[in-house]
Design a protein that fits this description.
It holds the Pfam family PLDc. With 1034 residues, this protein is an alpha+beta fold. The protein is 37% helix and 12% strand.
Length: 1034
């Protein structure tokens, strides 16, 4: 089976004793990468002399990094995809508090923060707020100590560049301690071994569950203990805490006047506003709204802004007419002196919401006040970017300059941990009836020689950004000049003054471990890093010893290291990853047997003309398939055949739509209509931006399959364990998330060259060849049946589980007598081979992370110098790295619920698995794990009808509408159905349903170059860039 052995780690020659007995052969694979033109240059060399401490939950990591930050003496480097200044690290101590504590010591460190600069609309990771809060740390210091520069993306993806990110997660303290892995210093990441669904002391933005709609609205009169982005801007631009506090008092007093006016209106109008127009009333201003403003406030603002002649000159015709209508409405409101008819309210708020959705200025103002619009046209997004990006760069330049001479003390409300950022839209999940989503991840603390390379990574990236803006002048957008001019007289644009960092210094050895730092780095970023090094040197800093050469290709170190580890593994591979999306061949249409292991009596009942089954995707993509379309099409101006989505939107009667919303006569239809418009336009826009790649490109699936095929051919025991999330974070009615699931299921089990099918095919070939059939005949036989859609006849019955264990994680709790379940979100990016090597960092198994030309990633390879022995297969001693083995054992103890400490956790420990922790390669181990995972999956499926399972739709209740709603729907939580208590669940592991979504079309047609995303927020950017996007949670 020569085609099965294309990747082999090495050839081992057996040595024998004088008596002819074979000696134990121990291979010594090289886990560390070397230069290879296919993957670009290694970022760093293999370094000896390192110590590590692994963290298998966010709580332990956050406590450790909080102490390290607080005790820093010289420098702190923090880079991340998401960095939230108010994230709780240790009890109620925020990141901001730890940084402030470090600055109160006699030896004050220099602090540098580099969050990724997110696009804000549809994807806002909080980088602006973190930048504002970090600059305020300089207030009252004799010498500036804090710098922050959000990192603009540096991918090689041309027109699609906006959709890619800096995905590294790293902290370096004093050039002595480095933290790296999958955990950002961000909301929702702090979890322990209990995986609680209950709030358990968490509140507001820490109540993280993007898979369900937030039901709890913070009432207006309870919003005083919160800050908005606009207030933070005002606090940073005002010189001194006293003025900032006055700003807050005035803003609150004014807002309360408007709230009182609203409360005096008719209850029907108030209810409608409350239900439908929450996001359209909070407006920009110094001391911006902590409560919902009134119609008079809206009218005054619109008249002031829209009356500006310079603004009106840049408006397209459609927006000009819309804004003229708004001005007419504003004038009518002011003439009525606070007595507003219901019709006037409906007309005004309809116009205002259209303006917010169709103009970048409207979207910008609402975003600043933490009420981002749910829908945006492509034109509005373009306008928004034209306002927001210059504003953010201008704001950074101004604050960076002002930080050199901050007056007074840090804003006292920011210094108070009780004052939190207002959650987006003033909403959170309701902890009394909705679960948070537990978070599973891995991080490592490293001390020793490799720390230099982590410091170098930060410095090179930082200097590249300093060089990009060196000497440039960022002007304030004209529409903001008047408002921001009120808060400071020192806002005139000035050239950017760079602050370059000197090269990283060597670090003394500490320990016996080898480590090599890996990156995925676009060629553009490498060029800009070199330019940063040149300009830093030109500013009289020392020349670095590395990173000065002219780059010739992107770096795909993470992919190279993973491929090398897979090929070199001899006993087992253990993978935890947020994604598994890899080249899977062709989409397969065959229908499997009814149950796992059940042999089919004959060919499946398959429609050759239309192999796909219609499912929820079709209800989200076709307007004419909406149930009430014939009833409302003419009324809304949608009747007839239109060529494209844009034409339909031009005919949409927004006033009729507003009337339908007000009368509550078609809530479900209206919501579905807007979603279909958004989805159609999103797909079209993604394809038009740049020609999509034809398929998923990375070869990690092939590498795993090839290694298993080699074991099958040789008759060896070899096993791969893979732990994945149930599905990517986000609501299951998001078409891009649904497409992510499609890619994952095709990669795992459904595609023609999926991992499961490759294993089954190899097992079938091995069986035929063992029975005397020549290899070429066996291969032709299998190919023939597969072309006919009859793979079930020759290999789909093979027991692939002998070589592969696929797991999800889930838990459940009792919420006031109601059983509630949620997935445990696997966010790790970890590969362990033979307990000898660990690769962990920020890189997912998808094209974005692995190919090197897209998202920037950071990881590390860790292995031991002196191997110890362990009986991984239960009988033969094998060389291991003790630290790596202890990491895997700690993870297994956690996933088997062996370290649960909270008495309210309903999941029992899987104690029967504890004796097998040190024997991952033994058949008895994977058999026991698979049995427990299958038992747990069965128990959950019997109790909860909505969770994924084999042979079910992507929405498991589809198409039986009587079987209950899904968790992404409000009705699921507002009218809960009765669920049974899961019986005999032990451990958090569940069997991954490999036939979930089979034969159902969940490919939306999104541009594959953008998909295989890293985080849900990135998916939202693409949807926010097109017409009328309806976004659920973030």
């Amino acid at each position: 089976m020569s085609q099965m052995t294309a990747i082999r780690s090495r050839q081992l020659d057996q040595l024998n004793t004088a008596e002819g007995e074979p000696l134990c052969a121990i291979s010594a694979p090289d886990w560390f990468i070397r230069p290879d033109p296919r993957f670009g240059p290694p970022y760093a060399r293999k370094r000896a002399g390192n110590n590590v401490r692994f963290f298998t939950n966010g709580e332990d990591y956050f406590k450790d990094v909080a102490a390290a930050i607080s005790n820093a003496r010289h420098s702190i480097y923090i880079s991340g995809w998401q960095i939230n200044y108010e994230v709780r690290l240790d009890g109620d101590r925020r990141l901001w508090d730890c940084l402030a504590e470090a600055l109160r010591k006699n030896e004050k460190p220099d602090i540098y923060l580099m969050p990724w600069l997110s696009p804000k609309v549809g994807m806002d990771t909080g980088d602006l707020e973190t930048m504002l809060a970090s600059f305020l740390l300089n207030a009252g210091l004799e010498q500036r100590k804090v710098w922050c520069l959000p990192a603009i993306q540096q991918s090689d993806m041309d027109q699609l560049g906006t959709f890619f990110s800096h995905h590294q997660k790293m902290v370096v303290i004093d050039n002595q301690i480095a933290y790296v892995g999958g955990i950002d210093l961000a909301y929702g990441r702090r979890d322990d071994n209990n995986f609680r669904l209950a709030a358990d002391g968490r509140s507001e933005r820490e109540l993280y569950n993007p898979c369900i709609p937030p039901l709890r609205e913070i009432p207006a009169h309870q919003q005083y203990p919160y800050m908005t982005t606009a207030e933070l801007i005002g606090a940073t631009l005002m010189e001194g805490d006293a003025l900032s506090r006055v700003q807050r008092w005035i803003g609150l007093r004014l807002d309360n006047e408007h709230v009182n006016a609203v409360r005096q209106r008719k209850q029907a109008a108030l209810n409608w506003l409350k239900d439908r127009l929450k996001g359209g009333l909070r407006l920009f201003g110094v001391g911006a709204a902590y409560t919902t403003g009134g119609a008079l406030d809206m009218a005054r603002f619109l008249r002031e802004y829209l009356g500006d002649e310079e603004v009106r000159q840049h408006l397209p015709p459609r927006i000009s007419q819309l804004e003229k209508d708004l001005l007419d409405w504003a004038e009518e409101v002011e003439q009525q002196s606070g007595e507003y008819s219901q019709a006037l309210q409906i007309r005004g708020n309809t116009l205002f919401n259209q303006w917010v959705e169709q103009s970048g200025a409207g979207a910008f103002f609402t975003w600043l006040n933490n009420t981002p619009p749910e829908r945006l046209t492509a034109q509005a997004l373009e306008q928004f970017s034209a306002i927001a990006t210059p504003f953010l760069l201008y704001l950074h330049n101004t604050l960076d300059r002002m930080s050199d001479a901050q007056q007074g003390q840090p804003y006292s409300y920011l210094s108070d941990p009780a004052v939190r950022l207002l959650p987006p839209g003033g909403r959170t999940i309701d902890p009394a009836r909705q679960p948070r989503m537990p978070w599973h991840d891995v991080q490592v603390r490293l001390e020793g020689t490799a720390v230099e390379d982590f410091s170098r990574n930060f410095i090179e990236r930082w200097n590249s950004l300093q060089a990009r803006f060196d000497g440039t002048t960022q002007a304030m957008p004209a529409l903001l000049a008047g408002g921001l001019g009120l808060v400071s007289r020192n806002l005139a644009p000035q050239p950017f003054r760079p602050h370059y960092l000197p090269p990283a210094q060597p670090v003394a050895a500490q320990g016996s471990l080898f480590a090599q730092v890996l990156r995925s780095t676009p060629y553009r970023q490498l060029r800009e890093e070199r330019q940063g090094a040149l300009q830093a040197h030109a500013s009289r800093l020392p020349q670095p010893t590395e990173g000065f050469a002219l780059p010739d290709a992107r770096q795909a170190n993470c992919l190279q290291a993973m491929l090398q580890a897979i090929a070199g593994a001899q006993q087992f591979i253990y993978i935890e990853n947020q994604f598994f999306q890899s080249d899977f061949g062709e989409v397969d249409y065959a229908t499997p047997p009814k149950d796992d292991g059940e042999e089919a009596a004959g060919p499946p009942n398959q429609d050759k003309k239309d192999p796909w089954q219609d499912g929820p995707m079709q209800s989200l993509m076709d307007i004419e398939k909406l149930p009430d379309y014939p009833r409302y099409a003419a009324r809304l101006g949608l009747e007839g055949r239109f060529q494209d989505n844009a034409t339909r939107l031009q005919h949409l009667n927004f006033y009729a739509l507003a009337e339908m919303i007000h009368n509550r006569e078609a809530d479900e239809f209206v919501s579905a209509l807007l979603k279909v418009f958004a989805n159609q336009a999103a797909v079209e826009a993604s394809v038009n931006l740049q020609a999509p790649q034809p398929r998923v490109l990375n070869t990690l699936c092939e590498a795993l399959a090839t290694r298993i095929e080699a074991a099958i051919e040789m008759g060896e025991d070899f096993h791969v364990y893979m732990v994945l999330p149930v599905y990517p974070e986000g609501p299951l009615n998001d078409i891009t998330l649904m497409t992510q699931i499609h890619l994952t299921m095709q990669s795992l089990s459904l595609g023609s060259h999926s991992l499961v099918r490759r294993i089954q095919r190899a097992m079938a070939m091995k069986a035929q060849m063992d029975s005397g059939i020549p290899e070429d005949v066996a291969s032709d036989n299998i190919d023939k049946h597969q072309r006919r859609g009859e793979a079930w006849k020759v290999f789909e019955r093979e027991d692939w589980k002998r070589y592969l264990t696929l797991l999800n994680l889930r838990t459940w709790e009792d919420f006031h007598g109601r059983p509630v379940t949620e997935q445990i979100y696997v966010h790790s990016k970890l590969l362990i081979a033979d307990d000898r090597v660990a690769i962990l960092g920020s890189a997912n198994i998808n094209d974005r992370s692995q190919l090197g030309d897209r998202d920037s990633e950071l990881a590390v390879v860790i292995s031991g110098r002196q191997a110890q022995l362990s009986q991984l297969n239960g009988c033969t001693p094998q060389p291991i790295c003790r630290e790596v083995q202890q990491l895997r054992i700690a993870l297994w103890r956690k996933l088997f619920a062996l370290d649960v400490t909270h008495e309210q956790v309903r999941v029992a420990p899987a104690t029967q698995l504890e004796p097998m922790l040190e024997q991952p390669a033994a058949p008895a181990t994977w058999q026991a794990i698979q049995k427990q995972a299958k038992d747990n999956a069965t128990a959950y499926q019997e109790a909860f009808i909505h969770i994924p399972r084999n042979h079910a739709s992507i929405w498991p209740t589809w198409p039986d509408n009587n079987s209950g709603s899904m968790p992404f729907e409000h009705a699921f939580w507002e009218n809960p159905s009765t669920a049974e208590l899961p019986k005999n669940v032990a451990g958090f592991i569940t069997e991954l349903p490999i036939y979930w979504t089979r034969r159902e079309n969940n490919d939306s047609g999104f541009n594959l170059s953008v998909l295989a995303h890293n985080d849900k927020n990135e998916r939202n950017t693409l949807q926010a860039s097109v017409s009328l996007v309806s976004e659920g949670t973030t």
